[in-house]
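Forwarding the complex inputs:
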Amino acid sequence: MFNPIPRRLVRRRITRAEVLSGSLVLLVLLAIGGWIRSRAEAYDPADRDIAFETLQRSSVVDTLYRRPLQYWREPGTESAAVPDLGPFPQDLLAGGWQLDGRVETYTPENLYVKINGAAEQFLAFDFEALTYLTLVRGPIFLTIELYDQARPANALGLFARLRNPEARVLSSGGVHYTPTSVGALGMRGAIFFRIVGSAQRPEVEQKTRQIIGLLAEMARPTAAVDEVELFTEGLGLPFESVAYQKENVFQYDFLEDFWFASGLDSPGAGPDARVFFHRAASPARARDLYRRLLDEQLVEYEQVEARQAGVLLRHRYLGTYFALARDGARLYGAEHVADPAAARALLKRMKEVSGGH
Amino acid sequence: MATRRDKPLQHPEYDKQPLTRRDFARRVLGTLGVGGAAAYLALAPERWPLSLRDGSGLRSVPTERPMRLGDYRVAPPSGAVEVAVGYGSSVAERLDKALEAVGGLPHYVRPGEIVLLKPNVAFDRSPNLGATTSPEIVEELVRRLLVDCRAQEVRVADNPIESPADCFAKSGVRRAAEQAGGRIYLPDANAFRTLNTPGAKLIESWPVLYRPLSNVDKVIGVAPAKDHNLCRASLGIKNWYGLLGGRRNQFHQDIHEIVSDLALMMRPTLTVLDGSRVLMKNGPTGGDPSNVKPGHAVVAGTDPVAIDAWGYRHLLERDDGLPEYLPKAEAKGCGRVAAAESVREIT
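Prediction (whole assembly, two chains):
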């Protein structure tokens, strides 16, 4: 500030060489600045990429579930490290299979992370948790998905929706499943499961069978599904004929939680006939549902008869019969029946078998 | 005794300028003025005019400028059709026929260009389940782009939410793309930028996997044909969902709107629909090979709406009316449903 010679040009003469070199330096600096600016958006994206291997290592570890601490073991007493297989015993790894990564768990809040776009169909059936693990053996891998659907009815509803309707349902130790060419899908209690291998190979088939065996042995208690027994034991129908509809039954939003069975062998019932069953919260609630369902059905059906045993309706255009009855808190009936006598017989049969349910 | 100076104190080429009292006073005042102004800017409360104070730190948070995607479309050459279907016993044969009918791949991709190939690698499923783009068609396309079109680089990218590396590995797409010479781009947290899509209802401003899109000249979507639990079909347009970031699952509440927005967001050079393995039901994840129908068709073209309409009717074999997103996409000017009637089929 107190410099008597200010920073301004006070020289009387500047050589040409100085002018030229100064201008050159200035031009070079301007060119460098321009180049940097032009390259700001023209970078090679790979320079900012993270290595594939790094992502592969970190992407599986970065899950929302953290394993609890392990129990203390005295030094020298620990055996070889055993992987955490979630609900499965170590036998799962028999036959040279290894756990790939770790057991992953998902909740309703983050299920979309695993199956974005498909999560909604599980959430619609009261999904609670997914346990997901991958087994590998050489180039083959096999994934196991266990969906906890809170109630056996939900697992069955999903199973009926997702399985191939033409495939046979096998049962073993409380596990109901449909084998596929690379695994199986099925249910045990409230668990809906899916086993998917990467190739159609004997070892995949063998491992699938073993997993189904392990699922049957799993200690988790499962409540018996009375409604399934109603159809399988009461009416003698196969398991695969039973279906569960959680909501929007008969396309009415006030009807929920209905069970259906098809494949009836009653004479005159026809190939499309189905019987149904619903247990309401109280007799009063059942009475209300009965009345509302009847009112709605009378838009498309005409009443043929109304007795103590129930009502019989005939579709105005299709000519098929719909039978409906109520007994205490239970609603039951039959739909798409070809013959009125068969409808009456089905209603009577349903009354007999649902008495104890 | 005083010594005698041989040279003057001041170089003779410089003017001597002593500091006067007036100059001194002016400089002191100037210095105080500049210092006071700087102190005001730095210390004055934030609501005062011109204040630069940043007590909360919010002023210094960088603001991102939304970017826009280019229009990657190229008109088909004269004599070529907008959409064509190639049938054959191998993927290469189907692809050849379909691409030839729309003008040939070299018409769309010039030597030296950078191309993004966007397959559907949404799930860690093996290719036989039909939930992901088949690796065979990815390999064929990458090879043709590099060899026939002499592209500078072919990038292969998708954004599966869960474990992208696993999804690329188990679907076989990584191996296929790398074998053919393509470069895999996996998403990470820094690979996204906010994209501005004028006219889009739900994603007018939304984070998109941008890194593989930077500096690309052409974009080609290659999608499987599959059933979808929510929007009835996942075909060429739905494939662009894989570029979205953020909490995109919320869009499932209005799935048809978002899919039609995707058609607006991305104007690809070409859309290729792979009908080699069609997931007929239980999509989009599948899980049972009995749900997969082997096919012998590949659809290629420049009208994504027509391609989806054709794929819905002929690959998924549905005659229950088109998914709602197709008329919506048409209304947004992304293609013509009616063009599906004039698709050229080459057997």
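Chain A touches chain B through 52 residues (CB under 8 Å).
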